[in-house]
Amino acid sequence: MQQILVVEDESVIRTALRRLLERHDYQVAEAASVQEAESKHSLTDFDLIISDLRLPGAPGTDLIKKAGDVPVLIMTSYASLRSAVDSMRMGAVDYIAKPFDHSDMVAAVERIIADHPARKGESAGSSSADNRVTGIIGNCPAMVTLSEHIRKVSPTDSTVLVLGETGTGKELVARSVHQHSKRADKTLICVNCAAIPDTLIESELFGYEKGAFTGANASRMGLIEAADGGTLFLDEIGELPMEAQARLLRFIQEGEIRRIGSVHSRKVNVRLICATHRNLHVLSAEGLFRQDLYYRINVLRLELPPLRERGKDILHLAEKMLQVQAERLGKGAMELSPRAIQAITTYQWPGNVRELEHAIERAVVLSESSEIDNEALGIDLELVNINRIRGQGIQAPTSYTPRSITSDPNEDLSLEDYFQRFVLEHQDSMSETELAQKLGISRKCLWERRQRFEIPRKKASGSSSRRRKTAS
After folding, report:
1. What pLDDT is recorded for position 379?
2. Cis peptide before 59, with omega less than 30 degrees from 0?
């Protein structure tokens, strides 16, 4: 059973979070401050620490260095989103904005613990070193593993199959493999199999002799022959026609090619790297891809994670791209606004790294100021939240019936229950501004929630009357 430490000064939130995690089979300990966490617990004994950013005494970010290799998840309000991002730069594994749904918290905990099994002890320095070697940006576990595999695969001459969704950077991986191989000083030929018509793919790959077909007025070398001594990268190999697959299989097996219209074969020494976003195993089972070819190219496999699964790498990539695009377009120093950061880290990015790069470039071109907002990125935050809810199978509430909040404080509270309880218990002693800050929302949002939950704002009584009399 994984052990989690929750550090939160609000007892209601702390208790509700403990009960939520215990219901999902986690062992949970509590603390109200950094000092209490250090004095009562050994921080390195936990699999995960969940801490509020603002705590009495010392901030939650102090736990990042004190916890060593234990991942720290920071809870923060939208108002302090910039501070949350700064905490990630300090080493926090991720952040979650208040108020959060229970499903969001559970999903974040599951993802972080899965990405940090038994606390491998991989330091950020080693991760950075791995990435400097391969040229791949990213320190999430999946990218660190990919970098390690690239280093091991590159020196060999074995065929490599790169798998990943469209836009994840499969060609970048292929180039990294080539650059770190023994053929780095030789040619790298890149071919997008999906971009060449079926009628031309064979002549493009294998070449042809003069007179082989109408219009063949001279002999032409194919791309495989042009890559002799170097590396051939076949992108989207799943789109290759069956006839071309048969000829490619012979090239892999025999190390030779025969131009169209020729009776002679030519020996070639080519290292093959293939890539696809499709499931070749399923395609071969359905007869849409040659099974024998699949077995031939599936020797060394490299898998690229989608951008949405790369955690805080998304923000690092966005900031790096922003710097590059700003310099390229002569815009000077630019930065992401808190809403832009929220949009970047919550959007699903179906187009992956390529979509992020295009969004950053568009934002740099269109932005008049030095700060990039989510609107310049073309991301609608409201639509992102709706899609996230739908994607998790959560029914978004269309109406709300006020409930009586008379339950015991120690019971597991929903987000709506907690909001009502907190407002009812503290509105006599706190101003609207203080209530909003403590809940991590704006005054406007607080007013809207009061209306939705039908919690009227109490009018000032005795003390305010005395203040008015004094003033008069």
Report:
1. 79
2. no
Q: What confidence score (pLDDT) does residue 121 get?
A: 40
35: its two tokens: 């000092």
Contact 349, 314 (CB under 8 A): yes
pLDDT the model gives residue 80: 57
Residue corresponding to tokens 């409930």: 403
What's the CA gap between 358 and 325, in Å, rounded?
10
The secondary element (H helix, E strand) that includes residue 345 is: helix 338-346
Burial of 263 (0-12, 13-18, 19+ CB in 10 A): exposed
Residue type, position 206, single letter: F
Task: Judge whether 55 and 9 are in contact, CB under 8 Å.
Answer: yes
DSSP letter string over 187-212? -EEEEEGGGS-HHHHHHHHHEE-TTS
Can you read off the two tokens belonging to residue 109?
């905990």
Segments of the chain with pLDDT less than 50: 79, 119-134, 386, 389-413, 460-472
Name the maximum alpha-carbon separation found in the chain. 109
Res 146: pLDDT: 92
Q: Which residues contact 126 (CB under 8 A, 6 or more apart)?
A: none
Give per-residue burial for 56-80: e unless 16+ CB within 10 Å, then b: eeebbbbbbeebeebbbbbbbbbbb
Contacts of 199 (CB under 8 A, 6+ apart): none
Give burial (CB, 10 Å; 0-12/13-18/19+) of 22: middle
Report pLDDT for 230.
Answer: 93
pLDDT for residue 181: 93
- What's the pLDDT tens digit per position in 41-95? 989 889 999 998 888 888 888 898 888 888 899 888 754 556 666 777 777 888 8
Say how many residues make up the chain.
Answer: 472
Give the C-alpha separation, 238 to 381, whole Å. Answer: 35
Helical spans, DSSP H, in 154-261: 170-179, 198-206, 223-226, 242-254
**In this structure, what DSSP letter does residue 13 have?**
H
Alpha carbon distance 351, 155 (integer Å): 31
Give the pLDDT score at 99.
73
CA-atom Rg of the chain in angstroms: 29
Tell me the one-letter amino acid at 438. K
